[in-house]
Amino acid sequence: MVGLFFMEKQRVIVYIDGFNFYYGLRKDARWKKYYWLDLVKLFEMFMRPNQELIAVKYFSARVDDIDKSLRQSAFFQANNENPKFKLIPGKFLRKEITCFHCHTLIRTHEEKETDVRIATQIVADAYQNNCDIAIIVSADSDMVPAIELATEAGHKVVVYFPPHQYSSNLASL
């Protein structure tokens, strides 16, 4: 009798650096049509027959500009319809800096906690054996230590660069 061999599906989690992804799309008008992606559907298209997408973890801070906030909320709400989509919020803080040359006070914003949250999730998922493959969508070299730890834990890690984004440190892993 010939035995049947069933290969267990590899579990895949995608980690998206939201602002890195968004600003990559924004750099070229041809990418604007992709602002409203169904992220789970997009990454399911990348799965091989022996892979199963477990989750798409999207890391981003909520902007405080009213118009941008409404669009961002609509994007989050649409993607939240899929139970595989997980929004993991960071913080978006107002920041005041002084120009070195003219000493003018400049009001700006800074995203906080996102990189640490991504790295923490990658390492936690690797060591809790929540996935077999981690796909990181970012060009932020701050992810290198987390990727190294996930790899040491025996997990395959793949990096996808957002459009118009690149990191030689990530590319060399």
Description:
- This protein is α/β, with parallel strands linked by helices and 173 residues long.
- The protein contains 6 helices and 7 strands.
- The strands form 2 sheets. The chain has a 5-stranded parallel beta sheet. Strands 4-5 form a two-stranded antiparallel sheet.
- The longest helix has 15 residues, at 66-80.
- The mean pLDDT is 88.
- Structural Rg: 18 Å
- Overall strand count: 7
DSSP summary: helix tally: 6
Unreliable spans are: none
Main pleated-sheet profile: 5 strands, parallel
Q: Quaternary state, please?
A: single chain
Shape: globular
What's the helical proportion of residues?
Answer: 25-40%
Query: DSSP strand (E) fraction?
Result: 25-35%
Structural class: alpha/beta
On the 0 to 100 scale, the average pLDDT is 88
Q: Which H/E pattern describes the elements?
A: EHHEHEEEHEHEH
For the termini, the CA-CA separation is 45 Å
Q: How is the secondary structure organized here?
A:
Blueprint: E1 10-17, H1 18-26, H2 39-44, E2 51-60, H3 66-80, E3 85-89, E4 91-98, E5 105-112, H4 114-127, E6 133-137, H5 144-152, E7 156-160, H6 168-171
Parallel strand pairs: 1-2, 1-6, 2-3, 6-7
Antiparallel strand pairs: 4-5
Helix pairs in contact: 4-5
Protein traits:
173 residues; alpha/beta; 5-stranded parallel sheet; globular
Short characterization:
This protein has 173 residues and is of the alpha/beta class.
